[in-house]
Design brief:
Structural class: alpha+beta
CATH superfamily of the largest domain: Autotransporter beta-domain
Number of domains: 2
Pfam families: Autotransporter
Helix content: 10-25%
Number of strands: 20
Shape: elongated
Strand content: over 45%
CATH architecture of the largest domain: Beta Barrel
CATH class of the largest domain: Mainly Beta
Distance between the termini: 105 Å
Keywords: Signal
Order of helices and strands: HHHHHEEEEEEEEEEEEEEEEEEEE
Oligomer: single chain
């Protein structure tokens, strides 16, 4: 009888183990509702975790979630989707720096055209410096395998230039920007991104047409934190150290200078190239930690737009309100590269994520008021907005420039 009882207990234990393994086995691929979620599910289906391990506990808790939506979301959390917008943040920093610089060049042309003959605004050898501070707030809507995000930033930018020839201006610029981004839900990570930008610029204008060219290098430093959490499971993860990224920017814009009295209209067209990458990195902090391979963004956009401004003279002061409207279109079909990752324990296969790109069309608007004293010192207060079907970005600027 004792022998029979022992056989019953052993058989029951084996049956329980088989049942538990069957529950853990999924199949998890069927839980996924997006390509990225299904890719993680395929990897989990190929794992046979040890009984009682953290990996088994994670997979069991995922299987026990009550709804299909919750199980799909859990698979999405296990992917690298929280990091899909990182190169976009760096490219956005380059966009903001370039836009401030081109707004400054517009003001330089306006001051030169408005200056009285006995008080020229510039000449060969003239040096001008500009200092700009700005605040940005933005919202990116979530799409397939791409998280929603709220971001805000603070930036400081400096430029110095001179005129080697009457119609030609050349200069150099440097800037820093700190970005905070909250991805996915409120309980998920707050990612910080510190950007340093440096580069040359040049502008040619003969009073009838103009050409502006800017370029630069951007160095990004990311501090990454991520929370993977559902009923029965919680991991708080962080990258091992600072994650770095390189970026390059180039913009060319050409336009016509039309004038009627104190009113100017400037139709223009431009081409903008942005490159931003994120180096490979490893997370720490739990079973869901990932090894993420390097990935990047390569964006080429065309733009069409126009500016209109007027000058109001008040003694030694010139007050200049201005408006700008611009349409940009992404010329590359897939600017973002795919992201490859695997669990940091390295006992499972690699899974890939191809995030949905941002909408290819965006409308940009700008408004500013500049006060210039004696064609030498200018103070500008401005707003720039970017609006796409999946993003809204607002930028507020205070700029001071001085001719020496």
């Amino acid at each position: 009888m004792i022998r029979n009882l022992r056989h019953i207990l052993v058989g029951g234990a084996v049956a329980f183990s088989v049942a538990a393994h069957a529950q853990v086995a999924g199949p998890y691929e069927g839980y996924g509702q997006t390509p990225g979620e299904r890719a993680v599910g395929v990897v989990l289906d190929g794992i046979a975790p040890a009984a009682g391990s953290d990996r088994m506990a994670m997979m069991q808790s995922l299987s026990q979630l009550p709804s299909a939506g919750q199980r799909a979301d859990a698979l999405g959390q296990l992917s690298a989707r929280s990091y899909t917008l990182l190169p976009r943040l760096a490219a956005g920093s380059m966009d903001a720096h370039d836009r401030q610089l081109r707004d400054y060049l517009v003001e330089r042309r306006a001051i030169a055209m408005d200056a009285p003959a006995d008080m020229p605004a510039s000449g060969p050898g003239t040096i001008t410096m500009m200092l700009t501070g700005d605040l940005t707030q933005g919202r990116y809507e979530g799409r397939t395998d791409r998280p929603s995000a709220n971001m805000d930033s603070r930036a400081l930018r400096f430029a110095i230039d001179m005129r080697p020839l009457p119609d030609l201006l050349i200069g150099a610029t440097i800037g820093i920007e700190g970005i905070d981004a909250g991805l996915d839900r409120a309980k998920r990570p707050r990612i910080t991104d510190f950007n340093t930008y440096i580069g040359p610029y040049a502008s040619y204008s003969n009073g009838k047409v103009y050409v502006d060219v800017t370029g630069g290098y951007n160095f990004a430093e990311y501090r990454l934190r991520r929370q993977v959490s559902w009923d029965g499971f919680d991991n708080r993860l962080a990258s091992t150290g600072v994650v770095e990224g390189d970026g390059w920017a180039a913009t060319a814009e050409a336009g016509v200078l039309l004038r009627s009295g104190k009113v100017r209209v400037q139709p223009f067209a431009g081409l903008l190239y942005r490159y931003a990458d994120v180096e490979s990195f490893t997370e720490r902090g739990g079973t869901a930690a990932l090894d993420v391979a390097a990935y990047n963004l390569k964006s080429l956009r065309g733009s069409l737009g126009g500016r209109v401004s007027a000058t109001i003279d008040k003694g030694d002061w010139a007050i200049r309100p201005a408006l700008r409207a611009e349409w940009q279109h992404e010329l590359r079909g897939q600017p973002e590269s795919r992201i490859e990752a695997r669990f940091a324990s390295r006992d499972a296969a690699i899974f890939s994520l191809q995030p949905t790109s941002l909408a290819r069309d965006a409308g940009l608007v700008g408004a500013s008021v500049t006060a210039t004293h004696a064609s030498r010192t200018s103070v500008r207060l401005g707003y720039n907005g970017e609006f796409g079907s999946d993003r809204r970005i607002h930028n507020f600027t205070l700029s001071v420039s001085r001719r020496f």
